[in-house]
Amino acid sequence: DINECHVDNGGCDHICENSKGSYTCSCNTTHTLAADQKSCVTSCTGYVTQQPTGHIATTHFPHSPYTSNANCTWIIDLPTTYNSVELMFDGMSIEESANCSNGSLTILNGKDEDAFLLASFCGNQSAGTMQTSMRTVTIKFVSDDKLNTDGFSLHYKGLTERPEGVYLCNETIQMNTTFALPSFPSKYTEPVQDCLYSLVAPTKLYRVKITFLYLDMQNADCSEDRIEVYDGRRSKMAEICSGSNVSEFVSTGRHMRVRYIGNTVNKYRGFHASVTFFL
């Protein structure tokens, strides 16, 4: 008798058990055997920690419907050697409804109360591939007791490179992009005394436009948390805080600067902005 488990663990993700003339695969207690009887997917709720790659799916996708009244949460929490997570969707079929009220798959940057919405899906959407801006991501799936369809399946992998749109304080930005505090979308846990971004257009023929897409700061009087916008290197155009009405600024030349000061920790996320260089 050949022991199939001796070669590549019999193709089993976790446990391979040899028997006379055959073998079977099984999974650790935190996982469920997938429809191919070899792959292990995370059970309805739990952590996926310290694993740079993995597979998350509703049970037995796509061969049988998902469970009624499900309320599932998976948290991918990778080591500090990783900067973000890439999610690759194999398929999705979730009951379609207005505002996804009958069932949904939600992807959030971060975890717990610090999580920040990245995307929400229902119906037969093709989500393709998406990249988070953090090494921790929360995946939530809920369903009702009405129509249940196949559910979803995705694979993930940790990425060591810095995700697009993430810049460290005191960096220079020279391309059309979005940017935010390095901790965004998490709340900053230490005072941000002087986080400066220099925005430099390709040539003197170009100007710079900044649009603030999201603001989350302490108060409206700018006394504790504020953004300072400079036309050029020294000419202050504005101070922005949570009560500010103006969200767009345009330079007179090829340079702009954005400076963030934040003294209120563990409560606010700061800002998220876009920069465009134009003739």
Question: What is the topological layout?
Answer:
Elements lengths: L14 E5 L2 E5 L4 E3 L6 E3 L2 E5 L3 E5 L13 E7 L6 E10 L9 E7 L6 E6 L7 E3 L4 E8 L7 E9 L12 E2 L3 E4 L11 E9 L6 E10 L8 E7 L3 E6 L7 E3 L4 E8 L7 E9 L1
Describe the structure.
This protein has 279 residues and is an all-beta fold. 0% of the residues lie in helices and 48% in strands. It is built from no helices and 22 strands. The chain has strands at 15-19, 22-26, 31-33, 40-42, 45-49, 53-57, 71-77, 84-93, 103-109, 116-121, 129-131, 136-143, 151-159, 172-173, 177-180, 192-200, 207-216, 225-231, 235-240, 248-250, 255-262, 270-278. The strands form six sheets. It has a five-stranded mixed beta sheet, with no helix packed on it. A five-stranded mixed beta sheet has the order 14-16-21-18-19, with no helix packed on it. The model has no long low-confidence stretch (mean pLDDT 88).
Quick take:
By secondary structure, the protein is mostly beta strands.
Provide tags for this entry.
0% helix; 5-stranded mixed β-sheet; 48% strand; mainly beta; 279 residues; elongated
Rg measurement, Å: 24 Å
Which strand order does the major sheet show?
A: 5-7-12-9-10
Major sheet: 5 strands, mixed
Strand runs, count: 22
Structural class, from secondary structure content? mainly beta
- Poorly predicted runs are none
Instruction: Round the mean pLDDT to the nearest integer and report it.
Output: 88
Strand content: over 45%
H/I helix tally: 0
Q: End-to-end span in angstroms?
A: 75 Å
What percent of the residues sit in helical stretches (DSSP H or I)?
A: under 10%
The dominant shape is elongated
How are helices and strands ordered from N to C? EEEEEEEEEEEEEEEEEEEEEE
